[in-house]
Structures are given as structure tokens and as C-alpha cells.
Amino acid sequence: MSGIFDYVPHPHVEKRKEAGPPTVAAAVARLHGPGPIGRLNARIGLKITVVVGTMWCAYLFTLLALVSAPSAFATGNRLIIVAWIAQTFLQLVLLPIIIVGQNVQAAAADARAEATYNDAAAVLEEAKQIQAHLEAQDAAIEKILTTLTAKTG
Fold first, then answer.
1. What pLDDT does residue 69 have?
2. What is the DSSP letter of 65?
3. Which of 8, 19, 51, 58 has its CA 20 to 30 A from that of 78?
4. Is the dihedral of CA 76, 78, 81, 84 positive or negative?
5. Is 10 helix (H, G, I), strand (E, B) or coil?
6. pLDDT band at residue 153 using 50, 70 and 90 as cut-offs
């Protein structure tokens, strides 16, 4: 390399090459532990979330909640009716709907994160090309300076 500039890569560049993009497995290990129990807990939690987080489950929970609706309304007691709406219907039905919404938001966030990662990787490669271009220019400038110095000296 020329004597005009000495390129020193940022230490994160090598760490990034070694680590690669973030993975679900790494997140699971951080949240539940790297061992078999942690993986089992994550697998069970994911399966339940996938099943409960569907609109079909929301429809099923709505039907289940409606089974007890006639009894609650038949009492005529406002407290029991409000309790049924809040504790039975809303909690039971909104749970899967909220999970569906979170899944949609998570998918969008994952797509943005992947695009950002790819953009950062592209920018890094572009920076490497710029560095190579600057090295070539430095070499050409040094050659010109050497030629000029030889002619004047």
C-alpha cells in the first residue's frame, strides 16, 4: 500500500464476517438457554403461539365464549354481564387476534431487518471498492510525483 494513507479496517468488520446475520437459534439460546430444556421450551412456546395466533383460533374462541353468553345475560346482573364481556369474551377472543397482529408486524420487521442487513453488507462492499480505487489513485499519484521529482532533480 502507498505511504499516503494506511487503511485500518474497523474491528466490527471481521466480527460481522464471523457471526453472519442474526438467527432465530441464537435468539432462542439467549432467551431460554442453549441446552435441550431451553430448546424444548422455545419449541413448545412457538408451537402454542403459532396455533393460538390464527384467526381460526379467534373464531373458535368466539364460539367458545358465546356458549356462556346466554347464562350471563339471563342473570340480568350488570356486574356479571360486564364481567363476562371483559373476562370471557374480550380476553378469550382478543388474545389470538393480538397475536395475529403481532405476527404480521414481526414479519414486516423481519423483512426490514433483512433489508437493512443486506444494505449494510452492500455499503461495506462499496466502501471496499472505494478503498481499492483510492489505493490505485495513490499509486498513480506517487508514480507521477516520482517522475516529476526525477525530471526536476
1. 94
2. H
3. 58
4. negative
5. coil
6. low
Distances (CA, A) of 80 to 52, 62, 119: 27, 18, 56
Taking CA atoms, 5 is separated from 95, 108, 110, 148, in Å, by 60, 42, 39, 21
Spatial separation of the C-alpha atoms in residues 121 and 112, rounded to whole Å: 14
Which three-class secondary structure string do you get for 127-138? Answer: HHHHHHHHHHHH
CA atoms of 84 and 118, how far apart (whole Å): 49
pTM of the model: 0.59
**Cα–Cα dist 68/54, whole Å:** 22
Place of cell 500500500: 1
State the distance between the two ends of the chain, measured CA to CA, in whole angstroms.
25
Spans of all domains in the chain: 11-152
Dist. CA 39–CA 31, nearest whole Å: 10
- Cell 516529476, residue? 148
Grid cell in block for residue 45? 412456546
* Nearest alpha carbon to residue 97 among 126, 54, 64, 63: 54
